What does this fold into?
Amino acid sequence: METLETYYQQRFAARTRRIQASTIREMLKLTTQPGFISFAGGLPAADLFPIERMAQVTQRILLEHGAQALQYSTTEGYLPLREWIAQRMPGASPENVQVVSGSQQGLDLIGKVLIDPGSPVLVEAPTYLGALSAFNPYEPQYIAVDMDDQGLCLDALEAALKQQAPRFLYVMPTFQNPSGRLMGLQRRQAIVELARKYQTPILEDDAYAELYFNGQPLPTLYALDHALGGGNVIYLSTTSKTLAPGLRVAWVVGPKPVIQKIVYAKQGADLHSPTLNQMLVYELVREGEWYRAQIDKIRQTYQTRSRWMLAALQKYMPPEVRWIVPEGGMFFWLSLPEAVDSLELLQRAVAEKTAFVPGQPFYADGSGKHTLRLSFSSATQAQIEEGIRRLGRAVHQMLGREPVA
Amino acid sequence: METLETYYQQRFAARTRRIQASTIREMLKLTTQPGFISFAGGLPAADLFPIERMAQVTQRILLEHGAQALQYSTTEGYLPLREWIAQRMPGASPENVQVVSGSQQGLDLIGKVLIDPGSPVLVEAPTYLGALSAFNPYEPQYIAVDMDDQGLCLDALEAALKQQAPRFLYVMPTFQNPSGRLMGLQRRQAIVELARKYQTPILEDDAYAELYFNGQPLPTLYALDHALGGGNVIYLSTTSKTLAPGLRVAWVVGPKPVIQKIVYAKQGADLHSPTLNQMLVYELVREGEWYRAQIDKIRQTYQTRSRWMLAALQKYMPPEVRWIVPEGGMFFWLSLPEAVDSLELLQRAVAEKTAFVPGQPFYADGSGKHTLRLSFSSATQAQIEEGIRRLGRAVHQMLGREPVA
It folds into this structure.
């Protein structure tokens, strides 16, 4: 027998042969070393996980409904949770709701159901890296649509919709991962209308929906589409950013024909999401007042941390570096001078024991070499101050300048 | 806009358009009605779930390691659990282990990694229905290999291996779902050797590994292959049948090149399995003595229930009906007279308020019309007596005979 590597290489599916080990992933493995300050991971703040309440509630579920919580259950998900989700989405009933194991699984199942090899799929530039990982095995042809401060550029979007017949348009209108952008109301309305005009469904990823620092949430694309007759938006959200990501409880809300296909796809993919986890999440979110307070605590904490990061960026970055000041979410998105490649910068940053995620992997078209994502959600004030100081020093070095401090 | 059904029908991926609603699934939805005795679901006995211990252990994990249990974690899975799994598999290290959300997810990810449209895949006739659901979206060309009482027929297997270049051979050698068959040691050895000779990897699904009623477990195909040099078996097992299925904790053990691809596939599919669930399973299985006692309790209970079912079958079935007496697992597999279509029988059975799963969906080649699967794992003695009596009556009716009772 030849080497195992060669033996299996000949047996892997074409969709898999394309996957390469990621340099960035390898580099970021170093960030667990002592003394490292990493802004790379998009980790919700673990100090805000409602651990004691979860321990209490889990105990109660197991002792009172253990047989149900531990048994196989329906693919669609725990009905009371689906009812709670449906109530929050205009015009939805539980038949429009599929519970999934994290938004990531929603993306995978939607890719499985809607993408043929070569299917055009419109994505934002930049877009969520994990969505590309989810869709890639189904071999779409991505069309990356430019963005401005308000989100997708309408001219570019209309041109793409006109030329192609995309299977769908994937957007994250609220505090986008990676750019932190909040799409304005007019832009939302225009995009929903364009998608209807060109008969292209929208996949709205609303993972950061609840993380507004201030002000009233804007309507979802799902709600705006519903007001125009509905049926053209498939909606994804999660409790990963409001309760805890380790439970892996999220959901897809969409038109019944799509949800039916997703149910079959999910049945083949993992039968159902863990029953106990779904019941736990339901018992937490149904306590409206408590859940609201939990979310408020997260919002305030992230707002404070984002301000610390803003202050540190202003203090330590050279004036050519630009960023979007986030109004919510977990990220700062930086544009470096065109001369600075963020992958090279990461090497220097890692030498300084700090890290971020380079922007290029978030671009389906391979652009974005001079961009990067910083996460503030899990960092202390001291870590932000020191980590951004180190990063600023690395940027100054790459520009051949003396650092600020 | 046309109807939503038509609108999306034009946008679904080809792999999805083939999926049809299942008549059987619809019929079995009726089995939740009061008075129904169903042997259809392959449900582990909920009365044996170690609920109180799980409640205690979960409480401890959350209060002592809550931040870890609720945070994002690595795609590969919880390291102590992977170490525990690796220790039980000859020659394996944690790098050979991927934790998955139920064996079902293992099947899906392996399909994603190894099946191209049209790839030949060898399966047993009958085979696990859920494996077909997992593989179907990747559009393999199934080759169903005949079985005798010892498992796959060697001549048929060799002929198939010779003619095709299958991507893999999928087998469940221990208490197969649906047939309950236990593949003998000689047959195991021969199959492992044939697969190596024809350079076809084996996918060994060992979900029922621990459910021997008596006697010493036979070596796994993985172990037999390891003794010949290893690298040709990808192995799947789970805690769904020993602890509880609702937790969705299972694993794939395989050659590193395959596991690496599975890691990438899983990262795109759902990032990782729930951290809390993995930690809970680890804390339970690491208590070797307790875990052994838990499994013994399940074995004894299932053996008792299988004997009740055997007695009822002997009492109520006409002599033409044949079955395999299981030496473990959760199922009886019945062969009816060729004249009796088990889908028609199901309609009569449902009218009598009892149910089973018709055998045909377990055959990749659409044969098996006169077979059916009965699960005894969750039934009481009274349910078995009365349910099999009803079923016997329906069989007698279809044969135009007077029932026994």
In short: The first strand of chain A starts at residue 37 and ends at 38. Chain A has a mean pLDDT of 95. The longest helix of chain A spans residues 288-316.
